[in-house]
Write a structure and sequence with these properties.
The chain is α/β, with parallel strands linked by helices and about 450 residues long. The chain has helices at about 1-35, 65-75, 95-100, 120-130, 155-165, 185-205, 220-225, 235-250, 270-300, 305-340, 350-385, 400-420, 440; strands at about 50-55, 80-90, 105-110, 140-145, 150, 170-175, 220, 255-260. It has an eight-stranded mixed β-sheet, with helices on both faces. Helix 2 links the parallel strand 1 and strand 2.
Length: about 450
């Protein structure tokens, strides 16, 4: 009968879908299995380079003073060898004044184009201004920070060690500034920490390119001058910059003991907006660069390009995970139920065959789902809670117990929100800042709007 042939065709398509989905999932499993490889340490260098910390800021009066002050006063690095630059982008508050008061070198960018309301443009402007400096005042490295970040005391020294070892492009460990605030911040912290503790460490040890994106990214001035500056155009400018440098032959590295502490989203709305934005940007970037990634893999034989390809393919595979699989398996189980236990006429296979297929599918699907649920949810979360709890902002391991148990549910929500982003137009929404108390940050209490393009 026709419905038997339809079932066979859809089953074959589903096998193909499962294979496609299995590849990036297998890579993530590999990260966990190899996550206990020893971390890479760059040799300590007596030679010190000049560092420019660059912060794009739009109406960040609530946090900018504390961020600048913390960066300038808490680094175990010669003070004369680093500065903080703040690009005050279309600010209508006193961000520029507070940044300057804290000790930053302030660049003012007034750009009326509404399409430029994102961090890309102040970053591009700041990079061009800094790399144009020559002579004794010239810098060797630029480190991108967000307006609410903190960095550990050894950050500058560790990034300098990597630079002196020949690294032009590097990322730090991504920790959390407000990791213990509530469930959303705890779960988001674990999600970010996974790529640091597992993905980035394994890539570094296997000589694959690190994914250098977001806060704490170190870019050498020599590389920026060679490539024309911060040459990005999309909403996901950090990931775009990373891909372009890979195509240029600049391999990113991971400096694990350098930690940037980020402000994690503390509500469902901010979590949803951030994930949606990432899903939208990643999907757009993948569509425009998928062919180039394969091209450079065949040209160089470097598996870094395939690893990036399969990671970014997850943005589109979410459509298969969240749409195809539920619809197909509803049809699958309904059809096998009727075919195996009566209700429809059969010509190709017996009812016993369909009954056996039904139960085999139930056991296999349950086993795979539970296994992945335990591995990516509980085991991954448990390892992070045991080994990296301090970087996640916890005072002790017990503080993360509830998050470990709830982490699998967050991963499901994460996939759904990425799916929404993949199917929507890119946008840059405002996010709430979780301002640390003045006693912790050294910031003075000020009035200011929530951040937008400095997020």
């Amino acid at each position: 009968m026709w419905y038997e042939y339809l079932y066979r065709v859809l089953s074959i398509i589903n096998y193909v879908v499962l294979i496609v989905i299995a590849i990036p999932i297998a890579i993530q499993v590999l990260y966990i299995l190899l996550g206990f490889l020893p971390k890479k340490r760059f040799p300590k260098s007596e030679k010190k380079g000049r560092i420019a910390y660059l912060i794009p800021a739009h109406n960040e009066a609530d946090v900018i003073y504390g961020t600048v002050k913390d960066a300038l006063e808490h680094q175990n690095y010669p003070r004369e060898l680093y500065d903080v630059y703040v690009v005050a982008h279309n600010c209508t508050d006193n961000t520029a004044e507070l940044a300057e008061k804290a000790g930053a070198k302030v660049l003012v960018l007034n750009d009326p184009d509404p399409a430029h309301r994102m961090a890309l443009y102040p970053l591009k402007y700041g990079v061009q201004e800094i790399i144009a400096i020559e002579g004794e005042e010239a810098y060797d490295m630029i480190v991108h920070l967000d307006a609410d970040n903190r960095i550990n005391a050894e950050f500058s020294s560790l990034m300098n060690d990597a630079f002196q070892a020949g690294v032009d492009f590097a990322r730090p460990y991504e920790g959390a500034l407000n990791g213990m605030q509530n469930f959303y911040t705890k779960a988001s912290t674990m999600l970010y920490a996974f790529d640091s503790r597992f993905g980035s460490r394994v890539r570094e040890r296997l000589h694959l390119a690190a994914h250098v994106n977001g806060s704490g990214a170190m870019m050498s001035v020599r590389m920026l001058r060679e490539t024309g500056g911060y040459d990005c155009e999309t909403l996901s400018d950090d990931a775009e910059f990373n891909m372009k440098r890979m195509f240029d032959g600049h391999k990113g590295h991971f400096v694990e003991d350098a930690v940037v502490y980020e402000d994690m989203p503390s509500s469902w709305r901010d979590t949803y907006n951030r994930n949606k934005r990432m899903g939208s940007g990643a999907t757009s970037l993948f569509k425009s660069n998928a062919g180039n990634l394969w091209k450079h893999f065949f040209k160089t034989g470097d598996f870094s390009f395939l690893e990036v390809y399969f990671l970014f393919s997850l943005s589109l595979l979410n459509v298969l995970l969240c749409v195809w699989l539920p619809i197909y398996y509803i049809f699958h189980f309904v059809y096998l139920g009727f075919a195996g236990y009566g209700g429809i006429e059969l010509t190709l296979f017996s009812a016993e065959y369909y009954r056996l297929s039904l139960w085999n599918t139930i056991f296999a699907a349950a086993g795979i789902a539970v296994g992945l649920f335990i591995l990516f949810g509980y085991i991954q979360g448990l390892i992070l809670a045991i080994t990296d709890y301090k970087k996640l902002g916890a005072k002790n391991r017990r503080a993360l117990t509830g998050t470990v148990f709830g982490f699998p549910a967050f991963l499901i929500l994460y996939g759904i929100t990425l799916l929404v982003g993949a199917c929507s137009k890119p946008s840059w929404g405002r996010v709430a800042r979780n301002v640390p108390p003045p006693s912790e940050s050294g910031a003075e209490k000020t009035d200011g709007a929530d951040g937008a393009d400095g997020a």
